[in-house]
Write a structure and sequence with these properties.
Length: 116
């Protein structure tokens, strides 16, 4: 459980959730709750992925062919859909990572123009 107030949490920018999901799945198949937990833990509790955003994103990624899903049993013995990164998803992850790094660098230049 996080000790941060909800007001202090960082909001995900539109389009970043897809990238974070793809990146998380590079480590292997995971169910939705596991993906959300991994993003939260990896971000040092800064990012909280709401189910209302996660599952539509997973459906969108599956429709695009970037992830595949199959039913399985979670560690708490519940039926869950496990999502895996496809080869197309791995390729898209590379593209999205490059775009994100370019965007972050450009924003950094605007926020700190003296550091150029």
């Amino acid at each position: 459980m996080s000790t941060r107030d909800d007001e202090e949490r960082l909001e995900l920018l539109q389009g970043t959730l897809d990238l974070l999901i793809l990146r998380t799945l590079i480590f292997g198949a995971q169910h939705g709750q596991g993906i959300a937990r991994a993003i939260q833990q990896t971000s040092d509790e800064e990012l909280l992925v709401e189910h209302g955003a996660l599952y539509p994103a997973l459906q969108r990624l599956e429709e695009r062919g970037w992830v595949s899903a199959k039913w399985g049993v979670s560690s708490n013995n519940r039926k869950a859909r496990f999502y895996s990164l496809t080869s197309a998803g791995r390729k898209q992850l590379g593209k999205e990572t490059t775009k994100w790094k370019r965007l972050a660098a450009a924003i950094g230049r605007v926020l700190d123009p003296e550091e150029i």
